[in-house]
Amino acid sequence: MFWIAPEYRERLSAAAVASYDDAARLEPTDDYVEKQGRSTGRYRLDVGDRTLSLYVKKHLRLPWWQRLLGATRLFPGPAEHANLRRAAELGIRVPEAVFAGAEARHPCGSLLATRELEGYLPLHIYVPGPLTRLPEPRRRRRKRALIARLVDMARRLHGRRLYHRDFYLCHFFLRDDAAAPDGFDLVMIDLGRLLRSRWSRWRVKDLAALLFSSDVPGITRTDRLRFYRAYLGVPKLDDDAKRLARRILRKAERYRRHNFGRAA
Length: 264
Fold this sequence. Notes:
Elements: E1 2-4, H1 9-14, H2 20-24, E2 30-35, E3 38-47, E4 50-59, H3 64-69, H4 76-89, E5 97-102, E6 110-115, E7 121-122, H5 123-126, H6 138-158, E8 162-163, E9 172-176, E10 184-188, E11 195-196, H7 200-213, H8 221-232, H9 239-263
Antiparallel strand pairs: 1-5, 2-3, 3-4, 4-6, 5-6, 7-9, 8-11, 9-10
Helix pairs in contact: 6-8, 7-9
C-alpha cells in the first residue's frame, strides 16, 4: 500500500521514489530521532535543480494486536495521513502530506512524509523568543490573536469529539505571513494519536497538556484564563467550568510531576 499526492508524483519519480520500498530505503539528511519503535527525520530529495525537504516518520515496529490484525487502515502511517485529512476538513491548518504507506507483505512497517514547515517555529520557542521582542501594542495584539487561534482549533476538534492527545505547545508551528489573517499562519502537527471518543477524559487530557506546556516565559495566568473562558464561550466561570478546571489542573500537575521525575 503506497499513496503519493498527485502533485508530487512526477517530482518523486525523478527522485526514484515510486513505491513503499523506495521510500523505506531513503536515508535521513539530519534531525534524526529514533525511539519507541519509530523514527523521524528530515529528508532532502534532489529533484533536478531543486530540493524537496520532507519530514518522514517511519514506524518500525507495531503493537502485537496490530500485527495480528494486519489491517493497513490501522497502520500508523496511513492512519495519521487520514487524521491529517480529517483535521483539514474541519478547517484546521495541518502539514501537507506528500506520501504515506504500509508494508502489506509483513505487518510491521509504515510511514508518512510531510513537507517541512520551512520558516516556522514551534510555539514553545516562538512565544518566549520572537513574540517577546515585538513592540507593544503589536505584541499584545499578536498574543490575543494567537490565543483566539488556539481556541478555534481546540473547539473545532472537540466539537466533533476528536482529541489530539498530544496537545502541547510544541505541536503548533507559527510563521509570520503578512497575507494571512492576523499576520501569521499557525499549523497543528503530529496527529498520529487523534481519537474520536465520547469520554470526557480526553478533553481534560488535551487541555491539561496545553496548560502544562504553557509554562514558558511570556505566558501569564491572565493568558491562560483568557484561553479557558474563550474555549468555554463564557464571560465568567460558573460551577461546571470550575469543576472542569480542577480536573484539568490535577491532570496538568500529574504531567508536571511525571516530567520532573523523568528529568531527575
